[in-house]
Amino acid sequence: MDAAFTAEQDEIRRTLHELLAKHCGPQDVKSAVRTPVGHDTALWGRLAAELGLPGLALPEEYGGVGCTTAELALACEETGRALLPSPLLATAVLAAPLIAALGTDAQKSALLPLIARGERTAALAVPGTSLALALGLTGANSDGDWAGGGRAGGVQARRMPEDGTWRLYGEAAQVLDGHSAQLLLVAAHTGGFARSRTLLFLVHGDSDGLRRTRQTTLDETRSQARIQLRDTEGELLGSDDSLDIHAALAATGLTAAACLAAEAVGAAAEALERTVAYVKEREQFGRAIGSFQAVKHRLADLYVQVQAARSAAYYAAWDPGAGALALAQGLDALRSAAAEAVQLHGGIGFTWEHEAHLYFKRAAADELLFGPVHRLRGHAADRAGLFGPAPAEATA
């Protein structure tokens, strides 16, 4: 493999970095998350119009840029560095790939160009708190229990015998950008307990019977909502109900993990850089605290950890199969960088007014949403057969 970035990839990173440096500082982030939609719509419009960010990894035939996971991961590294509140993760990383993989030609032609132009945002709604499991990151998603198991709870879908339409009932919590997304991809069970199977449905944001409530979250930069469906009409994603959505979700999960790993690395690197700059200026006993050997050692160890996580994230961008392990390493690095930032900033680092707490909350919330780290590593070890036969071999 050639580990060097192309001129186009470097240009994507540079342009995005410059734009976010001007318009997405810590105060801009705090202002954006307190808006009704939870992000700066004007900045999102510029990112879509000038950089084609929502459609970066979508095919050109649907209005996308036609790039790969590598370019999307590089973009996520920069958005992570700035802690950009945006629909990028929910729309471009989670929802759009599922529409591209499972949708009919008519569905893809109708929806993907709107997503690529930034005119429509989308979100994946998974019942309960099982997003990581649904994406196959912390365990096998094939049994479908993460979607309610066909029993009470989760979301249920019923096909109406009169006209063949689908009606959805139930609720999903912790839906990323679910309160503002114009399109929802809802995972729902159908077939009853005996023949239960999980399917994905398209639900438009203005549908009758849809109730959305924005939730208070630990990390305000990742807006979440509770979705309630009360006899809400949904459109089956795909041509029929025999599609293997578990495999599509798992494939999307690996790509998402690579992007999330890069995002975590960007946030960790920025937290480290801000901490290094601070210890060069803060003085104790007549000298900068960064000159003390103990501080140097702590920051040197952290630098090595962040660089190792960056290497893992870049490898996962080239080979998404390593996404879960790269994400685990990225989350570890971000947690360490955020903790050191709070500690080495001293008393000011513990205040809500300082930006250090933004990185600390991102680290904690990401592990709750997409981890925990030990389960990411444990499932990756199981898939590789590290401690015994891989699941596929064991059942053969």
TrEMBL record:
| Keyword Flavoprotein found | yes
- Superkingdom of origin organism: Bacteria
Residue stretches making up the Acyl-CoA dehydrogenase/oxidase C-terminal domain: 258-383
Instruction: Name any cofactors this protein relies on.
Output: FAD
Q: Name one GO molecular function term.
A: oxidoreductase activity
Write down a Pfam family by its short name: Acyl-CoA_dh_N
Q: Keyword set for this entry? A: FAD, Flavoprotein, Oxidoreductase
E.C. number, please? 1.-.-.-
| Acyl-CoA dehydrogenase/oxidase N-terminal domain location | 6-119
Q: Coiled-coil ranges per the record?
A: none
Under PANTHER family, the record lists: ACYL-COA DEHYDROGENASE, ACYL-COA DEHYDROGENASE FADE28
Family classification: Belongs to the acyl-CoA dehydrogenase family.
**Name used for this protein in its record:** Acyl-CoA dehydrogenase family protein
UniProt organism field: Streptomyces mauvecolor
